[in-house]
Protein backbone atom coordinates (compact mmCIF):
# COMPACT_ATOMS: atom_id res chain seq x y z
CA UNK A 1 0.00 0.00 0.00
CA UNK A 2 1.38 3.42 -0.92
CA UNK A 3 1.96 5.73 2.00
CA UNK A 4 1.63 9.53 2.17
CA UNK A 5 2.07 12.08 4.95
CA UNK A 6 0.51 15.43 5.74
CA UNK A 7 2.25 17.65 8.30
CA UNK A 8 0.16 20.51 9.69
CA UNK A 9 2.42 23.44 10.44
CA UNK A 10 0.46 26.60 9.73
CA UNK A 11 -0.33 27.61 13.32
CA UNK A 12 0.88 30.84 14.87
CA UNK A 13 2.23 29.85 18.26
CA UNK A 14 1.23 33.08 19.99
CA UNK A 15 2.19 31.65 23.38
CA UNK A 16 5.85 31.69 22.33
CA UNK A 17 5.55 35.50 22.83
CA UNK A 18 8.04 36.41 20.13
CA UNK A 19 8.66 40.00 19.04
CA UNK A 20 9.14 38.59 15.54
CA UNK A 21 5.69 38.53 13.97
CA UNK A 22 6.86 36.14 11.24
CA UNK A 23 8.40 33.51 13.49
CA UNK A 24 6.48 30.28 12.89
CA UNK A 25 6.13 28.10 15.95
CA UNK A 26 7.46 25.01 14.22
CA UNK A 27 10.70 26.79 13.31
CA UNK A 28 11.86 27.13 16.94
CA UNK A 29 14.97 24.98 17.29
CA UNK A 30 15.91 22.29 19.74
CA UNK A 31 19.67 21.64 19.59
CA UNK A 32 19.79 23.70 16.41
CA UNK A 33 17.17 21.62 14.59
CA UNK A 34 13.71 23.18 14.03
CA UNK A 35 10.71 21.46 15.64
CA UNK A 36 9.05 20.52 12.35
CA UNK A 37 12.29 18.92 11.15
CA UNK A 38 12.06 16.43 14.04
CA UNK A 39 8.65 15.39 12.76
CA UNK A 40 9.92 15.13 9.17
CA UNK A 41 12.89 13.00 10.32
CA UNK A 42 10.52 10.73 12.27
CA UNK A 43 8.33 10.06 9.22
CA UNK A 44 11.12 9.72 6.65
CA UNK A 45 11.91 6.05 7.48
CA UNK A 46 8.24 5.05 6.95
CA UNK A 47 8.64 4.50 3.22
CA UNK A 48 6.46 7.42 2.16
CA UNK A 49 5.73 8.22 -1.47
CA UNK A 50 5.12 11.87 -0.76
CA UNK A 51 5.21 14.27 2.19
CA UNK A 52 3.12 17.45 2.08
CA UNK A 53 3.60 20.16 4.70
CA UNK A 54 0.94 22.80 5.27
CA UNK A 55 2.50 26.17 6.03
CA UNK A 56 0.82 29.45 6.87
CA UNK A 57 1.95 31.69 9.67
CA UNK A 58 5.65 32.44 9.12
CA UNK A 59 5.32 30.10 6.14
CA UNK A 60 8.38 31.31 4.25
CA UNK A 61 10.64 30.21 7.09
CA UNK A 62 8.82 26.89 7.52
CA UNK A 63 8.99 26.27 3.77
CA UNK A 64 12.78 26.71 3.74
CA UNK A 65 13.12 24.20 6.59
CA UNK A 66 11.05 21.43 5.02
CA UNK A 67 11.30 21.86 1.27
CA UNK A 68 14.24 19.48 0.78
CA UNK A 69 12.07 16.62 2.06
CA UNK A 70 8.51 17.75 1.49
CA UNK A 71 6.09 19.45 -0.86
CA UNK A 72 4.58 22.59 0.57
CA UNK A 73 1.05 23.98 0.40
CA UNK A 74 -0.16 27.25 1.86
CA UNK A 75 -3.05 27.80 4.23
CA UNK A 76 -3.40 31.59 4.10
CA UNK A 77 -6.26 31.89 6.61
CA UNK A 78 -6.42 29.47 9.54
CA UNK A 79 -9.91 28.00 9.65
CA UNK A 80 -9.02 24.82 11.56
CA UNK A 81 -7.30 21.48 11.10
CA UNK A 82 -9.91 20.20 8.61
CA UNK A 83 -9.43 23.32 6.49
CA UNK A 84 -5.66 22.85 6.74
CA UNK A 85 -5.78 19.31 5.37
CA UNK A 86 -8.16 20.46 2.59
CA UNK A 87 -5.32 22.60 1.20
CA UNK A 88 -3.46 19.43 0.20
CA UNK A 89 -6.32 18.38 -2.08
CA UNK A 90 -4.65 19.40 -5.37
CA UNK A 91 -1.65 17.19 -4.54
CA UNK A 92 -3.20 14.19 -2.84
CA UNK A 93 -6.95 13.86 -3.48
CA UNK A 94 -6.84 11.06 -6.04
CA UNK A 95 -3.99 9.04 -4.62
CA UNK A 96 -4.73 5.46 -3.57
CA UNK A 97 -3.17 4.41 -0.29
CA UNK A 98 -2.80 5.40 3.35
CA UNK A 99 -2.13 8.93 4.56
CA UNK A 100 -0.74 9.79 7.95
CA UNK A 101 -1.73 13.21 9.29
CA UNK A 102 0.31 14.76 12.07
CA UNK A 103 1.30 18.10 13.62
CA UNK A 104 4.60 19.88 13.16
CA UNK A 105 4.93 20.83 16.81
CA UNK A 106 5.40 17.38 18.41
CA UNK A 107 9.16 16.80 18.16
CA UNK A 108 9.24 13.77 20.49
CA UNK A 109 7.29 11.45 18.20
CA UNK A 110 9.28 8.41 17.07
CA UNK A 111 9.42 6.44 13.83
CA UNK A 112 8.76 3.22 15.79
CA UNK A 113 5.39 4.44 17.07
CA UNK A 114 4.31 5.78 13.69
CA UNK A 115 5.38 2.53 12.05
CA UNK A 116 3.21 0.59 14.50
CA UNK A 117 0.25 2.88 13.79
CA UNK A 118 0.57 2.21 10.04
CA UNK A 119 0.83 -1.56 10.72
CA UNK A 120 -2.32 -1.52 12.85
CA UNK A 121 -4.20 0.39 10.12
CA UNK A 122 -3.12 -2.08 7.46
CA UNK A 123 -3.62 -5.23 9.52
CA UNK A 124 -7.10 -4.33 10.81
CA UNK A 125 -8.35 -3.02 7.47
CA UNK A 126 -9.43 0.29 9.04
CA UNK A 127 -10.29 3.30 6.92
CA UNK A 128 -9.05 5.50 9.75
CA UNK A 129 -6.85 4.63 12.74
CA UNK A 130 -6.47 7.25 15.45
CA UNK A 131 -3.37 7.36 17.65
CA UNK A 132 -4.82 7.88 21.12
CA UNK A 133 -3.40 8.25 24.58
CA UNK A 134 -4.77 7.93 28.09
CA UNK A 135 -4.09 11.01 30.19
CA UNK A 136 -4.78 11.78 33.83
CA UNK A 137 -5.38 15.39 32.88
CA UNK A 138 -7.02 15.35 29.44
CA UNK A 139 -8.09 19.03 29.51
CA UNK A 140 -7.66 20.76 26.16
CA UNK A 141 -7.57 17.58 24.09
CA UNK A 142 -10.23 16.06 21.88
CA UNK A 143 -11.82 13.08 23.69
CA UNK A 144 -12.30 9.64 22.17
CA UNK A 145 -15.98 8.77 22.48
CA UNK A 146 -16.56 5.00 22.36
CA UNK A 147 -19.73 2.94 22.22
CA UNK A 148 -20.24 1.48 25.66
CA UNK A 149 -21.18 -2.07 24.63
CA UNK A 150 -18.72 -2.69 21.81
CA UNK A 151 -16.00 -0.20 22.78
CA UNK A 152 -15.92 0.87 19.14
CA UNK A 153 -14.82 4.48 18.41
CA UNK A 154 -17.78 6.71 17.57
CA UNK A 155 -16.33 10.22 17.48
CA UNK A 156 -13.68 12.67 18.61
CA UNK A 157 -15.24 15.42 20.67
CA UNK A 158 -13.25 18.64 21.03
CA UNK A 159 -12.72 19.83 24.61
CA UNK A 160 -14.72 23.00 24.04
CA UNK A 161 -17.67 21.03 22.62
CA UNK A 162 -17.78 18.34 25.34
CA UNK A 163 -20.56 17.96 27.90
CA UNK A 164 -19.64 17.16 31.52
CA UNK A 165 -19.60 13.37 31.07
CA UNK A 166 -17.58 13.54 27.85
CA UNK A 167 -15.11 15.85 29.56
CA UNK A 168 -14.31 13.09 32.11
CA UNK A 169 -13.09 10.73 29.34
CA UNK A 170 -9.36 10.17 29.78
CA UNK A 171 -8.61 8.75 26.35
CA UNK A 172 -7.61 11.61 24.06
CA UNK A 173 -6.85 12.25 20.42
CA UNK A 174 -3.11 12.79 19.99
CA UNK A 175 -3.72 14.60 16.69
CA UNK A 176 -2.06 11.80 14.70
CA UNK A 177 -4.09 9.51 12.40
CA UNK A 178 -3.74 7.24 9.42
CA UNK A 179 -6.56 7.52 6.88
CA UNK A 180 -7.44 5.73 3.72
CA UNK A 181 -6.53 8.63 1.46
CA UNK A 182 -9.60 8.72 -0.79
CA UNK A 183 -11.95 8.31 2.19
CA UNK A 184 -10.24 11.23 3.94
CA UNK A 185 -10.79 13.62 1.03
CA UNK A 186 -14.34 12.40 0.51
CA UNK A 187 -15.31 13.33 4.10
CA UNK A 188 -13.28 16.54 4.27
CA UNK A 189 -15.73 17.89 1.71
CA UNK A 190 -18.58 17.33 4.17
CA UNK A 191 -17.13 19.27 7.12
CA UNK A 192 -18.95 22.30 8.50
CA UNK A 193 -17.72 24.91 11.02
CA UNK A 194 -20.74 24.26 13.17
CA UNK A 195 -19.01 24.06 16.58
CA UNK A 196 -17.78 26.08 19.56
CA UNK A 197 -14.69 27.40 17.71
CA UNK A 198 -16.38 27.91 14.31
CA UNK A 199 -13.59 25.92 12.70
CA UNK A 200 -13.44 23.06 10.25
CA UNK A 201 -12.38 20.23 12.56
CA UNK A 202 -10.42 17.39 10.98
CA UNK A 203 -11.68 15.33 13.93
CA UNK A 204 -15.27 15.53 12.63
CA UNK A 205 -14.23 13.27 9.74
CA UNK A 206 -14.36 10.40 12.27
CA UNK A 207 -18.03 10.75 13.26
CA UNK A 208 -19.00 11.28 9.61
CA UNK A 209 -17.26 8.02 8.72
CA UNK A 210 -18.88 6.14 11.62
CA UNK A 211 -22.30 7.41 10.50
CA UNK A 212 -21.63 5.79 7.10
CA UNK A 213 -20.42 2.57 8.80
CA UNK A 214 -16.81 3.00 7.71
CA UNK A 215 -14.39 1.14 9.95
CA UNK A 216 -12.53 3.36 12.42
CA UNK A 217 -9.93 2.05 14.83
CA UNK A 218 -7.68 3.39 17.55
CA UNK A 219 -4.15 2.57 18.58
CA UNK A 220 -3.30 3.48 22.16
CA UNK A 221 0.13 5.02 22.54
CA UNK A 222 2.28 3.44 25.25
CA UNK A 223 4.37 6.51 26.09
CA UNK A 224 2.24 9.66 26.09
CA UNK A 225 5.39 11.77 26.19
CA UNK A 226 5.90 11.14 22.47
CA UNK A 227 2.99 13.38 21.53
CA UNK A 228 3.99 16.20 23.85
CA UNK A 229 3.18 19.37 21.88
CA UNK A 230 5.10 22.63 22.10
CA UNK A 231 3.07 25.76 22.74
CA UNK A 232 5.31 27.85 24.98
CA UNK A 233 8.98 28.14 25.86
CA UNK A 234 8.66 26.06 29.04
CA UNK A 235 7.45 23.13 26.93
CA UNK A 236 10.22 23.87 24.42
CA UNK A 237 12.84 23.56 27.18
CA UNK A 238 11.24 20.35 28.47
CA UNK A 239 11.29 18.72 25.03
CA UNK A 240 14.89 19.88 24.56
CA UNK A 241 15.87 18.01 27.71
CA UNK A 242 14.16 14.82 26.56
CA UNK A 243 15.83 14.99 23.13
CA UNK A 244 19.24 15.77 24.63
CA UNK A 245 18.98 12.68 26.84
CA UNK A 246 17.93 10.49 23.91
CA UNK A 247 20.81 11.70 21.71
CA UNK A 248 23.40 11.34 24.47
CA UNK A 249 22.19 7.86 25.41
CA UNK A 250 22.44 6.66 21.82
CA UNK A 251 25.96 8.08 21.46
CA UNK A 252 27.18 6.62 24.74
CA UNK A 253 25.83 3.19 23.80
CA UNK A 254 27.73 3.46 20.51
CA UNK A 255 31.07 4.03 22.24
CA UNK A 256 31.30 7.77 22.90
CA UNK A 257 32.17 8.86 26.45
CA UNK A 258 30.56 11.83 28.13
CA UNK A 259 31.94 12.95 31.42
CA UNK A 260 28.72 14.82 32.20
CA UNK A 261 25.82 14.10 29.83
CA UNK A 262 23.72 16.66 31.73
CA UNK A 263 25.84 19.49 30.32
CA UNK A 264 26.55 17.97 26.91
CA UNK A 265 24.37 19.32 24.09
CA UNK A 266 24.56 17.41 20.82
CA UNK A 267 22.20 17.66 17.87
CA UNK A 268 20.68 14.40 16.58
CA UNK A 269 22.31 15.12 13.20
CA UNK A 270 25.85 14.90 14.64
CA UNK A 271 28.00 11.79 14.14
CA UNK A 272 30.73 10.92 16.64
CA UNK A 273 33.24 8.08 16.44
CA UNK A 274 34.14 5.54 19.10
CA UNK A 275 36.39 6.38 22.03
CA UNK A 276 35.91 10.10 21.58
CA UNK A 277 35.50 11.72 24.98
CA UNK A 278 33.20 14.72 25.29
CA UNK A 279 34.00 16.84 28.32
CA UNK A 280 31.43 18.97 30.18
CA UNK A 281 29.73 22.12 28.85
CA UNK A 282 30.19 21.19 25.22
CA UNK A 283 27.73 21.88 22.42
CA UNK A 284 27.97 20.22 19.00
CA UNK A 285 25.39 21.24 16.43
CA UNK A 286 24.41 21.03 12.79
CA UNK A 287 25.89 18.55 10.36
CA UNK A 288 29.03 18.07 12.42
CA UNK A 289 31.04 14.91 12.10
CA UNK A 290 33.57 14.00 14.76
CA UNK A 291 35.95 11.06 14.29
CA UNK A 292 37.31 8.61 16.82
CA UNK A 293 39.44 8.99 19.95
CA UNK A 294 39.21 12.77 20.23
CA UNK A 295 39.05 14.81 23.40
CA UNK A 296 36.44 17.52 22.86
CA UNK A 297 35.89 20.16 25.57
CA UNK A 298 35.38 21.22 28.22
CA UNK A 299 33.52 24.42 27.21
CA UNK A 300 33.61 23.86 23.48
CA UNK A 301 31.13 24.90 20.79
CA UNK A 302 31.26 23.18 17.40
CA UNK A 303 28.82 23.81 14.54
CA UNK A 304 28.71 22.39 11.00
CA UNK A 305 32.29 21.19 11.28
CA UNK A 306 34.19 18.01 10.49
CA UNK A 307 36.87 16.76 12.83
CA UNK A 308 39.12 13.76 12.16
CA UNK A 309 40.67 11.44 14.73
CA UNK A 310 42.95 11.80 17.75
CA UNK A 311 42.51 15.55 18.19
CA UNK A 312 42.35 17.57 21.35
CA UNK A 313 39.95 20.50 21.12
CA UNK A 314 39.74 22.36 24.39
CA UNK A 315 37.57 25.37 25.34
CA UNK A 316 37.20 26.50 21.75
CA UNK A 317 34.67 27.67 19.17
CA UNK A 318 34.69 26.00 15.74
CA UNK A 319 32.24 27.04 13.04
CA UNK A 320 32.19 25.61 9.49
CA UNK A 321 35.68 24.25 9.99
CA UNK A 322 37.36 21.07 8.79
CA UNK A 323 40.05 19.62 11.02
CA UNK A 324 42.29 16.64 10.14
CA UNK A 325 43.83 14.36 12.75
CA UNK A 326 46.34 14.60 15.63
CA UNK A 327 45.85 18.34 16.17
CA UNK A 328 46.06 20.36 19.34
CA UNK A 329 43.43 23.10 19.30
CA UNK A 330 42.80 25.62 22.06
CA UNK A 331 42.26 26.55 24.74
CA UNK A 332 40.36 29.60 23.43
CA UNK A 333 40.74 29.12 19.70
CA UNK A 334 38.05 30.58 17.46
CA UNK A 335 37.74 29.36 13.90
CA UNK A 336 35.00 30.42 11.58
CA UNK A 337 33.60 30.07 8.10
CA UNK A 338 35.55 27.95 5.68
CA UNK A 339 38.62 27.17 7.70
CA UNK A 340 40.63 23.99 7.19
CA UNK A 341 43.34 22.60 9.43
CA UNK A 342 45.49 19.65 8.27
CA UNK A 343 47.14 17.07 10.52
CA UNK A 344 49.58 17.51 13.42
CA UNK A 345 48.94 21.26 13.73
CA UNK A 346 48.98 23.33 16.85
CA UNK A 347 46.43 26.16 17.02
CA UNK A 348 46.63 27.75 20.39
CA UNK A 349 45.16 30.20 22.80
CA UNK A 350 43.46 33.34 21.55
CA UNK A 351 44.05 32.45 17.93
CA UNK A 352 41.30 33.37 15.48
CA UNK A 353 41.15 31.83 12.02
CA UNK A 354 38.70 32.81 9.28
CA UNK A 355 38.77 31.36 5.77
CA UNK A 356 42.25 30.15 6.63
CA UNK A 357 43.82 26.94 5.32
CA UNK A 358 46.59 25.30 7.28
CA UNK A 359 48.55 22.45 5.68
CA UNK A 360 50.04 19.77 7.96
CA UNK A 361 52.24 20.57 10.96
CA UNK A 362 51.57 24.33 11.06
CA UNK A 363 52.20 25.94 14.43
CA UNK A 364 50.23 28.99 15.41
CA UNK A 365 50.29 28.84 19.15
CA UNK A 366 49.20 32.17 20.59
CA UNK A 367 47.37 35.49 20.19
CA UNK A 368 47.04 35.65 16.43
CA UNK A 369 44.54 36.47 13.68
CA UNK A 370 44.84 34.73 10.31
CA UNK A 371 42.11 35.48 7.77
CA UNK A 372 41.71 34.74 4.05
CA UNK A 373 45.02 32.90 4.01
CA UNK A 374 46.81 29.75 2.90
CA UNK A 375 49.60 28.50 5.14
CA UNK A 376 52.05 25.81 3.95
CA UNK A 377 53.40 22.76 5.73
CA UNK A 378 55.62 23.14 8.81
CA UNK A 379 55.31 26.91 8.91
CA UNK A 380 55.52 28.59 12.29
CA UNK A 381 53.46 31.69 12.98
CA UNK A 382 54.76 33.62 15.97
CA UNK A 383 52.78 35.13 18.78
CA UNK A 384 50.68 38.23 18.01
CA UNK A 385 50.91 37.97 14.25
CA UNK A 386 48.11 39.47 12.21
CA UNK A 387 46.98 39.31 8.62
CA UNK A 388 45.66 42.80 7.88
CA UNK A 389 43.25 41.45 5.30
CA UNK A 390 40.69 44.25 5.15
CA UNK A 391 41.18 47.82 3.90
CA UNK A 392 37.68 48.90 4.87
CA UNK A 393 36.32 47.91 1.47
CA UNK A 394 38.11 44.81 0.15
CA UNK A 395 39.23 41.54 1.68
CA UNK A 396 42.63 40.46 0.35
CA UNK A 397 44.45 37.15 0.35
CA UNK A 398 47.65 36.19 2.14
CA UNK A 399 49.79 33.27 1.05
CA UNK A 400 52.42 31.91 3.40
CA UNK A 401 54.50 29.08 1.91
CA UNK A 402 55.89 25.99 3.61
CA UNK A 403 58.69 25.97 6.19
CA UNK A 404 58.24 29.73 6.73
CA UNK A 405 58.83 31.55 9.96
CA UNK A 406 56.56 34.47 10.73
CA UNK A 407 58.25 36.33 13.57
CA UNK A 408 56.25 37.38 16.60
CA UNK A 409 54.24 40.54 16.12
CA UNK A 410 54.42 40.47 12.32
CA UNK A 411 51.68 42.34 10.51
CA UNK A 412 51.15 41.01 7.00
CA UNK A 413 49.34 43.75 5.08
CA UNK A 414 47.60 41.69 2.43
CA UNK A 415 47.72 40.90 -0.41
CA UNK A 416 51.07 39.34 0.48
CA UNK A 417 52.90 36.31 -0.81
CA UNK A 418 55.58 34.77 1.38
CA UNK A 419 57.37 32.15 -0.70
CA UNK A 420 58.47 28.82 0.83
CA UNK A 421 61.21 29.01 3.43
CA UNK A 422 60.96 32.76 3.97
CA UNK A 423 61.26 34.64 7.24
CA UNK A 424 59.87 37.81 8.76
CA UNK A 425 61.60 39.47 11.69
CA UNK A 426 59.62 40.05 14.88
CA UNK A 427 57.62 43.26 14.90
CA UNK A 428 57.79 43.80 11.13
CA UNK A 429 55.01 45.35 9.09
CA UNK A 430 55.19 43.51 5.78
CA UNK A 431 53.79 45.29 2.74
CA UNK A 432 55.85 43.64 -0.02
CA UNK A 433 56.14 39.98 -1.05
CA UNK A 434 58.97 37.95 0.52
CA UNK A 435 60.90 35.59 -1.75
CA UNK A 436 62.39 32.10 -1.13
CA UNK A 437 65.05 32.15 1.57
CA UNK A 438 64.66 35.90 2.24
CA UNK A 439 64.40 37.58 5.64
CA UNK A 440 62.07 40.59 5.65
CA UNK A 441 62.68 43.11 8.39
CA UNK A 442 61.02 46.51 8.63
CA UNK A 443 61.87 47.78 12.07
CA UNK A 444 64.21 50.80 12.67
CA UNK A 445 67.60 49.89 14.03
CA UNK A 446 67.97 49.84 17.80
CA UNK A 447 69.89 52.68 19.51
CA UNK A 448 71.05 52.30 23.18
CA UNK A 449 71.61 55.51 25.20
CA UNK A 450 74.00 55.26 28.11
CA UNK A 451 72.53 56.66 31.37
CA UNK A 452 69.16 56.84 29.66
CA UNK A 453 67.26 55.31 32.54
CA UNK A 454 68.30 58.03 35.01
CA UNK A 455 67.77 60.76 32.39
CA UNK A 456 64.13 59.77 31.77
CA UNK A 457 63.44 59.27 35.47
CA UNK A 458 64.80 62.70 36.44
CA UNK A 459 62.78 64.43 33.73
CA UNK A 460 59.61 62.75 35.05
CA UNK A 461 60.35 63.79 38.66
CA UNK A 462 60.98 67.36 37.55
CA UNK A 463 57.61 67.42 35.78
CA UNK A 464 55.90 66.22 38.96
CA UNK A 465 57.52 69.00 41.09
CA UNK A 466 56.32 71.71 38.69
CA UNK A 467 52.64 70.74 39.17
C1 LIG B 1 -6.14 19.22 17.89
C2 LIG B 1 -7.29 18.23 17.73
C3 LIG B 1 -7.56 17.59 19.08
C4 LIG B 1 -6.30 16.91 19.61
C5 LIG B 1 -5.15 17.90 19.64
C6 LIG B 1 -3.87 17.18 19.96
C7 LIG B 1 -8.70 19.21 16.00
C8 LIG B 1 -9.96 19.93 15.72
N1 LIG B 1 -8.46 18.95 17.29
O1 LIG B 1 -6.59 20.23 18.76
O2 LIG B 1 -8.60 16.65 18.98
O3 LIG B 1 -6.55 16.39 20.91
O4 LIG B 1 -4.98 18.53 18.37
O5 LIG B 1 -2.83 18.09 20.13
O6 LIG B 1 -8.00 18.85 15.11
N2 LIG B 1 -3.22 23.95 12.31
C9 LIG B 1 -3.11 24.38 11.02
N3 LIG B 1 -4.10 25.15 10.50
C10 LIG B 1 -5.23 25.49 11.21
C11 LIG B 1 -5.31 25.04 12.53
C12 LIG B 1 -4.32 24.26 13.06
O7 LIG B 1 -2.12 24.10 10.34
O8 LIG B 1 -6.09 26.18 10.66
C13 LIG B 1 -2.14 23.13 12.85
C14 LIG B 1 -1.48 23.78 14.04
O9 LIG B 1 -0.36 24.53 13.63
C15 LIG B 1 -1.08 22.58 14.88
C16 LIG B 1 -2.13 21.53 14.53
O10 LIG B 1 -2.71 21.94 13.33
O11 LIG B 1 0.18 22.07 14.50
C17 LIG B 1 -3.17 21.37 15.62
O12 LIG B 1 -3.87 22.57 15.77
P1 LIG B 1 -4.31 23.12 17.18
O13 LIG B 1 -4.99 24.40 17.01
O14 LIG B 1 -3.19 23.05 18.15
O15 LIG B 1 -5.39 22.04 17.57
P2 LIG B 1 -5.83 21.64 19.02
O16 LIG B 1 -6.84 22.60 19.50
O17 LIG B 1 -4.65 21.41 19.87
MG1 LIG C 1 -2.60 21.99 19.88
Roughly what percent helix?
10-25%
Bound molecules: uridine-diphosphate-N-acetylglucosamine, magnesium ion
Distance between the termini: 96 Å
Q: Counting H and I runs of at least 4 residues, what is the number of helices?
A: 10
**What radius of gyration results from the CA coordinates?**
31 Å
Overall geometry comes to elongated
The count of strands amounts to: 37
Strand content: 25-35%
**Classification by helices and strands:** alpha/beta
Q: Main sheet, how many strands, which sense, barrel?
A: 23 strands, parallel
Q: Give the mean pLDDT.
A: 97
As residue ranges, the low-confidence spans are none
Q: What descriptive keywords fit this protein?
A:
binds uridine-diphosphate-N-acetylglucosamine, binds magnesium ion, alpha/beta, 21% helix, 467 residues
Provide a descriptive summary of the structure in words.
With 467 residues, the protein is α/β, with parallel strands linked by helices. 21% of the residues lie in helices and 31% in strands. The N and C termini lie far apart (96 Å). Bound molecules: uridine-diphosphate-N-acetylglucosamine and magnesium ion.
Describe the structure concisely:
By secondary structure, the chain is α/β, with parallel strands linked by helices. The protein is built from ten helices and 37 strands.
Q: Which secondary structure elements does this structure contain, and how are they paired or packed?
A:
Layout: E1 3-9, E2 29-30, E3 33-34, H1 35-43, E4 50-55, H2 59-66, E5 71-74, H3 81-86, H4 89-92, E6 98-103, H5 111-124, E7 128-134, E8 143-146, E9 153-157, H6 164-167, E10 171-180, H7 181-188, H8 204-211, E11 216-220, H9 233-253, E12 257-258, E13 264-266, E14 271-272, E15 277-278, E16 282-285, E17 289-290, E18 295-296, E19 301-303, E20 306-307, E21 312-313, E22 317-319, E23 321-323, E24 328-329, E25 333-336, E26 339-341, E27 346-358, E28 363-375, E29 380-381, E30 386-388, E31 398-400, E32 405-406, E33 411-413, E34 416-418, E35 423-424, E36 429-430, E37 439-440, H10 452-466
Parallel strand pairs: 1-4, 1-6, 4-5, 7-11, 12-15, 13-16, 14-17, 15-18, 16-19, 17-20, 18-21, 19-22, 20-23, 21-24, 22-25, 23-26, 24-27, 25-27, 26-27, 27-28, 28-29, 28-31, 29-32, 30-33, 31-34, 32-35, 33-36, 35-37
Antiparallel strand pairs: 2-3, 6-10, 7-10, 8-9
